[in-house]
Amino acid sequence: MRGLLTFLVFCWAVMFGASYASATGLLLSEDEIGLVLSHGPWPMESASDPSNVMSGNRDAIELGRKLFFSPVLSSDRQTSCASCHVPDLNSTDGLPRGKGTRSLDRNTSALYNLRHNRWFGWAGQNDNLWAQSLAPISHPDEMQLSDQGLKRSLAVSEFRGDYEALFGTLGDDDPQQVLVNVGKLLAAHLETLETGRTAFDEFRDALERGDLETAAVYPAAAQRGLSLFVGRGGCNFCHSGPLFSNGEFHDAGVPYFIEPGRVDSGRHGGIKALRASPYTLDGVFSDDPGKTGAWAVQNVITQHSNFGTFRVPGLRSVAETAPYMHNGSLSSLDAVVEHYSNIDMERLHADGEALLKPLNLNDQQINDLVQFLKTLSAPLPEL
Amino acid sequence: MAWTSRFGALNLCGITLAAVFVAQAALACTHDAGWQEMTAESHNSGEASIRLPVDNVPLNQPFEIEVSVCPADGAPIERFTLDAIMPAHQHGMNYQPVILKSGDGAFLADGLVFHMPGIWRISVSALVGGETHGYFLDLKIR
Question: CB–CB of A30/A17 below 8 Å?
Answer without folding.
Answer: no
